[in-house]
Amino acid sequence: MESKPLDLSTIDELARTDPLWQTVLNQEANTPQIKLFSLMSRISDAKVFVADTLKLYKANSERLLVHKMQGVPMLVSKPEFWKSTDGAPYEPTPEWIDFLVHGIENDNREKLEKHYPRWVLNQGLVTFCTILDSYLDSTLDAVFQSNPRIMYGVSGAKHVELKKLVELGTVDAVIREIRAKEIRNFSNDDIANRLDYLKTKLSIETDRLFDWEYSDKDMDRPLEGLNLKSLESFYQQRHDIVHRDDAPISTLEELNIVSVFFLNIGAKLALLISQKHHVALDLAMFTNRNERYRLLKEQSKGSS
Fold first, then answer.
1. Higher local confidence (pLDDT), 98 or 153
2. In the chain, helix, strand, coil percent, each to 5?
3. Quick check: helix, strand or coil at residue 267?
4. How does residue 1 score in pLDDT terms, banded at 50, 70 and 90?
5. DSSP string of 98-145?
6. What average pLDDT score do residues 58-83 get?
7. What is the mean pLDDT of the chain?
8. For the chain, what are the domain ranges?
């Protein structure tokens, strides 16, 4: 009976012993594709990680507090920490020791119960933005690989020195160099300019990314009202978290809205680009693996 991959991990095992399955994997590696499944998986992983970490903090907060307080009473009792204004040592009373220990304990408890969870939530937002950034870069790369002619008018193709052309040696190497440079420039721009780039350079109707198409019958509308300004705001929050030690996200519900928002933007963008530029989706590559394997097997039988 013919072996078939039952899930996304099975094919790697089959490829170790079946050259045709390895060929299927090689086809995927060499096919430019929009990594929508990867986006879905990464966002899901990040959501689970944040939720699980918050649960771990809650379940182990007392144990963590005990761990953080180990050695504190001994530390604050050290004679070298107790000196009068003239520098003379003196022995603190037990009441002063207890006062300090309880103050430190209360401070640590507040961090564990309030600040630690909030830090996790806000690092979750940073992660979501990073995942979306990577997805946008890889999507642009897939379009360029599928149709290099789109790069004729990009800035990276307008200033290539003759010396660089000679050093690169081949047309393919020049194209890779221009593509990499253009994607770096794209990646370093802010989110609004990147969407504008997709609109002007790739002719993608980016306004449609924020059309949620709710009907009057839809009771649950989690993304209603979210638009480009909302996306810019989330990225500004990411900037404030990273560069100003800010913590604008305070609840898991707020963070989950961001994940749904980003995932829907990514899915809509995948459909628009695949329709406009005929770039394959990784989801389609996964689902037609068996069919491609079957065709390769038929071809191998016919040639033998």
1. 98
2. 75, 0, 25
3. helix
4. very low
5. HHHHHHHHHHHHHIIIIIHHHHHHHHHHHHHHHHHHHHHHHHHHHHHH
6. 72
7. 84
8. 34-205+223-280
